[in-house]
Amino acid sequence: xxxxxxxxxxxxxxxxxxxxxxxxxxxxxxxxxxxxxxxxxxxxxxxxxxxxxxxxxxxxxxxxxxxxxxxx
Length: 72
Fold this sequence. Notes:
Elements: H1 2-10, E1 15-19, H2 30-43, H3 45-52, E2 56-60
Parallel strand pairs: 1-2
Helix pairs in contact: 2-3
């Protein structure tokens, strides 16, 4: 997922990475995402620049199920 987000962000798209609030199946949680992202930034200068520049933004979906409700 991060390589695709990186690819989109490098082309000018602002990318929001939505992660579940609580564990569901094998989905990453928001807490896990915000712990993992700095580790990935440390090994990828481009990713680091995109996150620091606000082009890639992690967000908590508030979800607790493997599906994201996009109705609202």
